[in-house]
Amino acid sequence: LIQLAIPLNFIGFVYREIRQGLTDIEHMFDLLDVRAEVVDKADAKELKIQRGAIAFRDVHFAYDGARPILKGISFEVPAGKTVAVVGPSGAGKSTLSRLLYRFYDVQRGSITIDGQDVRDVTQKSLRAVIGMVPQDTVLFNDTIAYNIRYGRVTASDAEVEVAAEAAQIADFIRGLPEGYLAMVGERGLKLSGGEKQRVAIARTILKAPPILILDEATSALDTKTEQEIQAALDIVSRNRTTLVIAHRLSTVINADEIIVLKDGVIAERGTHGELIERDGLYASMWSRQREATQAEEQLKRVRESD
Ligand code: ATP
């Protein structure tokens, strides 16, 4: 019966999502995959958040048995601090954030928040304390105000505007003929990757969770957009325990610790300064990225002067 109840429950969920105008069908199937995987324990408790300290201990994980992705990862994100995870594409960085959000369960080891194993608490109480700014934000076919208010549906118009301001998206919205009532999503105005990310940040500001996961988009952003997003992220991550899956230099430099993931293990760890000094994998990634950014800006200057 339980086995039957979950899919029925899920169909209800999907139906509601469709009615709400979820635009990204693939994302929905992602959820479908994921929801079947993880079930609350019969005696699951509510997560009791104190200061919001996260600990990964000897975490092992594979999506399928044949190919281990994480092979014994241990690190902590102390309450209120920021830890950035970097590493080559496919190293398993986003997988860490999915495990913390409990889209999947670890196969060995544990992940705890304030000492409570994420497998022992209800998914609802776990997800209520985590704000997720994903790589690609799903927008509903509705107004931009609705899309921001999704972070906390009871928020007033004034609160939505304050959040938009802090997320550095308010100027953009004011520039739209219909302002906050402009329709966005597939059937409305299509926002750029950077704009969508700022909508996600505004949502998260309204949700005001003690724990934050930022999964940065891989796509290159121009310097101005990057600075705007960085300013928004600085505001939202202040005094919050933050795990950043980082692709941009600007988010990494100020992190309290940087974890360099490679082939499923931690290859290096330390602050930006320490890792540069070490002159290893991080230092070479950093100089490569800096060269790429400089080349891009040079190209832009050449184009602008044409
Ligand atoms: P990027 O920097 O490119 O975003 P990443 O380090 O975040 O990469 P992950 O998304 O964590 O990498 O993926 C790690 C590995 O797990 C990759 O090889 C990927 O193909 C694989 N993987 C990711 N999601 C799934 C899934 N749902 N099923 C099977 N394999 C997956």
Description:
The structure is a single chain. The chain has 306 residues and is of the alpha/beta class. It contains twelve helices and twelve strands. The strands form three sheets. A six-stranded mixed sheet has the order 6-9-10-3-11-12. A four-stranded antiparallel sheet has the order 2-1-4-5, covered by helices on one side. Helix 9 links the parallel strand 9 and strand 10. Helix 6 packs across helix 8, helix 8 runs parallel beside helix 9 and helix 11 crosses helix 12. The termini are far apart. The site of adenosine-5'-triphosphate has 11 residues, from helix 3.
How would the blueprint of this fold be written?
Elements: H1 2-19, H2 25-37, E1 54-61, E2 70-77, E3 82-86, H3 93-100, E4 108-113, E5 116-117, H4 123-128, E6 130-133, E7 142-143, H5 144-149, H6 157-166, H7 170-174, E8 183-184, H8 193-207, E9 211-215, H9 223-237, E10 241-245, H10 249-253, E11 257-262, E12 265-270, H11 272-278, H12 281-305
Parallel strand pairs: 3-10, 3-11, 6-9, 9-10
Antiparallel strand pairs: 1-2, 1-4, 4-5, 7-8, 11-12
The structure holds adenosine-5'-triphosphate.
